[in-house]
Amino acid sequence: MYVLVRRLMFYAVTAYVAVSVNFFLPHMMPGNPVETMIASAGGQLDQRSVEALKAQFGVGTGQGLWAQYWHYWGQLLQGNLGLSISKYPSTVAQTIGSALWWTVILVGTATVISFVLGTLIGALVGWRRGSVLDNILPVTTFFQAIPYFFLATVLLYLFAEKAHVFPNSDFKSYDTNNYVIGWNPGFIGSAVSHAILPALTIVLASVAGWIVGMRNMMVTTMDEDYVLVAQAKGLPKSRVIYYAARNAVLPSISSFANALSFVVAGSLLTELVFSYQGIGSLLLSAVQSEDYPLIQGIFLIITFAVLAANLLADTVYVLLDPRTRQEA
Amino acid sequence: MRILRNRKTLAGLILLAVFVFLAVFGPTLAPYPALQIAGKPWLGPSSAHWFGTTQEGYDVWSQFLSGDRAILVVSFLSGVIATVLSVIIGVAAGYFGGLADNFLSMLANIFLVLPALPFLIVINSYLPAGGKSSTALMAGIISLTGWAWGARVLRSQTLSLRKRDFVDAAGIVGERSWRIITFEIVPNLVPVVASSFLFTTLYAMGTYVALTFVGAVDVNTPWSWGSMLFWAQGDQAAASGAWVWFAAPGVAVALLGTSLALLNFGIDEFINPRLKAAGLTRRGLRAAGVTRRSTLGLTPVLRPTAAVVVTSPAEIIEETV
Fold it and tell me: Is the ipTM of this complex over 0.90?
């Protein structure tokens, strides 16, 4: 329990830093973000929105930096992330809310598949070290070095444009012309068939890291005495592998934080290629239209989501490794 | 050089040399400037335009040749800055311990957990137009998110080195901290630093390409493979069948990444003898006189038995059962 409380405090500090950076960054940069935004909105904003923006970025309100900072926190705790410029008159919270679930489901599922698959393959390759299976490593290295969005483009080209296996040209999260979002089979089928290619991209690009990490740990673990003892006692092979793998997987789980940051980054770009209407596409359209409140809001949401996923991984780690529980 | 005997390392070095050559001479060899109309739009590959032309009629081959330099410069510069940061922070945290360690470790952990790409996009979105096209500034900003991993690894290595006898001895003799760090500790960290440098460079490369692809930096200056991918995506190159336009820069980036990763593998095996033994091929082992089934307790550990560089692999293989 003690370990988890400590981790929880760490994530709280990280969240605090993220929020503070988000607030101070625009204040440190040269220029006036509000002017830029009003200019890029091209007169769409009414007087009240302009006032709201000025208040959000603290321009011309006569408040000191600290007063603004606390005001920002107050707004944030009420779930108010401000107004979106490009999606005006929607608020940032509404805009993110409609895109968030697409990303969470897609990236979440793909990450779990990739982790499980990579760990299993890695355990196998590590077990049969020095055999033909080792040739998998250079191949996975290549896949790891391929940028996500390039892999996405290739898959889109091969399977949607050439082979017509999957819906093509105007690739979206689902067939927007024929279905409405809801619990009906048509929509779910359409959403799933649109999710396969993006998910495949994420799995292919991220699985290599898990394979290599697990394989290297497996090679080290296999030299431990307890594995030798297990073998000497005549336990079935599958059982010995299981014992070794259970210990070898621990570093993979503890490095989950590291990996997740990469997966999230890659998924954002994958979404762009497939015009998947999740957080990634939203962030990019926000960058292109210089919609600062939306950019800020998305950064915060992504950070919070990553922190939550990490906390989950930490909890699993404590459950799996009794040593962490003893420490307290 | 013992490290050159490793096939992976050698392959990585050769591959990297090609990219360095391309970075130095590529723009000179290119028949056209990257953004100059060279023919009709959407031409397929031909003798006049090896890789075809873009939607605007730019020569894809020229764009490809010119695209390497910016990526190499940004990623290596960023790798250097981040590695320097990680050595300073990691070694300081590990060596001094206490409050400084707590603070620095926390800082590193925060940077590890923060999703880097969105963070960089946020920073970049506030940069003025001139800043978005500055190579040095990009390298600096990317290294801001790239140092933490190396710092953590170096910290734990320093922690274990600090307790060794020779470090104690240096302390008892009355050496100053900075001297112990620079002459006793850092030289022993060189392989780890090298590995961390390659990893960071690889990270910086991927991140820079991604930032360009997203349009978070100036997409035309400096010209890079990321710019090609940006325009190929924007102009629907895949849907229009101009697959060379997006395949060439994509494969090039992947190969550059592979070369760095291969070098890193080599260094990893250099540091961890168990991985090295596992990396030996069957033929190599047979030549060394080791018969081996892939079962338990048989990972041969390579140990140099003589001070001289070993000439035949037979003498460095010793079985641990």
Answer: no
